[in-house]
Request: fold
Amino acid sequence: MESIKSFMGWFFVTGDPMIYGADASIALASIGIVAVLTYFKKWKWLWEEWLTTVDHKKIGIMYIIAALLMLFRGGVDALMMRAQLTLPNLHFLDAEHYNQVFTTHGTIMIIFVAMPFIFGLMNIAVPLQIGARDVAFPFLNALSFWLFFFGAMLFNLSFVIGGSPDAGWSSYAPYAGAEMNPGVGQNYYLIGVQISGIGSLATGINFLVTILKMRAPGMTLFKMPLFTWSILITSVIVVFAFPAFTVALALMSIDRLFGAHFFTIAAGGSPMLWANLFWFWGHPEVYIVLLPVFGIFSEVIATFAHKTLFGYAVMVWSMVAISVLSFITWLHHFFTMGNTAPVNAFFSISTMLIAIPTGVKIFNWLFTLNKGRIQFTTPMLWALAFIPNFTIGGITGVMLAMAPADYQYHNSYFLVAHFHSTLIAGTVFGIFCGLHYWWPKMFGYLLDETKGKWAFWIFMISFNICFMPMYFLGLMGMTRRMYTYPAGLGWTPINVVMTIGAVGMGVGFIIMAYNIVWSAIHGKKDKTGDPWDGRTLEWATSSPAAEYNFAHIPEVSTRDAFEAMKEAERKGEADSKKPYAPIHMPSNTGIPVIMSAFMFVAGFGCVFEWYWMAIPGAIGVIACMIARSFVYDDHHFIPVEDIERTEAATGRLS
Reply:
């Protein structure tokens, strides 16, 4: 009995009321989900419609649901940190717990919120925008999602089992090594992020091939929508950047689990190897989560200004320039580490250069707005708010690009303010913009505009209340990673204001969540498939789109293809309807979710170094691969009668 008690005390995180609250919440939520599914007899529906689906639209919805849940978790972490720092000498969190909270906050927001949210939106929109019926590799797309999902679940399990990682989201060696960081927390980071990262790399490959090989007839590269262009370029960055991070995670895992010394100076390793590999991925990662939202803003601004996007070709080449420059800027994270002057000068200049193509995009959006018939919808408000707020973050980024100045700013709250100004005003504003814009295409009804605008104004104003004072706080000397501070430094009033802003952002998010629930019951139905008078092909289908997306693959002759089709129809020049033909579609399969579950088991075993669990889990993964190789009948045909019935029901006969 004593052995069992000792094991339970080591295995489960104990001693903190918040942990017990989390335990209770997880248990109650799990029981509630099981009870609802059982009571309404939805287990079969869940398996057949969602867990085994390879439909890119459903996979996109699952990505977004998971990202919203992770956003709630990451937001609670942020509020806990702000509560701790509101007043001097507080001990709401002790030093160790605070380290765990800011580590999980950063990791969750970047890897488990920003990326899956963008993957969700690109799953929803890209195949529709290029006139395709699915992605190039539907099975791989489903596997990518489930790897992300189980990787995220493994990482989040650390909160209640074993203990959370506490080495920061960048997990620098040697602090993240086994000697200085014993326990399983860092193992959760390495294994959970690795599993999720495999899915992210596969997604990049999948969408790169999809866009290059599956565009509608006539859609050349320079006739693609800007969002599709942004995803193409992002996919290239993913393919080149993620292997570096994958290698770094693998090397540190081998260090911790098997006693190697890739990052130990005394044994011939180098801690800077981790820093270089991490940031060689980490800085392009910033643009992995920014370039897609640049594409979202381009679509939304053109749609609601009712104009063709100004400077289309320049917008494309500016994104290409950003993607190239993103790979030669990573060393600006080391300006305080004693590099030589020529090295600092090169990376300082390369960092500043990124401001040029980014500035070009800002001016092109402004010129698109010029003399447009601007419609102030909720998506448009998010897009308009992005321009000034992100510009502030960009300007401060140029300040940080100057190596001598960065030596002063780097470890201060000035830097914290900068990257939140870019990642919230850029990525978060962008994903909220895209969520409202494509919501009717996902679900067939619109989110309520009044509630959406309330959420926007409260969130946007609160964002500025929270993060603009942070610049001044940094210049006053408050450093990053500080879990408490003494009175009398003059920091307290600013910290109080910042906490008020953080709470306001939470209120804005809650209103948005309420809007989603309210609109599901009372929302205005989208009966046309084109509620925004859109310009691109996703609006040429019903809302939500049928399994096959298009009864006939559209033929494209110009940019803004759907706008051109509507104009031809208004002039009476539309092509006559063609007869329907059976449509070839991939069949659902349970292998991706089962294989990812085995990966979770193997990962959990590695976290605790329980190889009796890890090895069977790995065998299960291999068995799923073998089973997949023997699946020959992995598709079906939708008969003409079903197509006619579906098209007649939507009122959008193609």
Remarks:
- The chain has a mean pLDDT of 94.
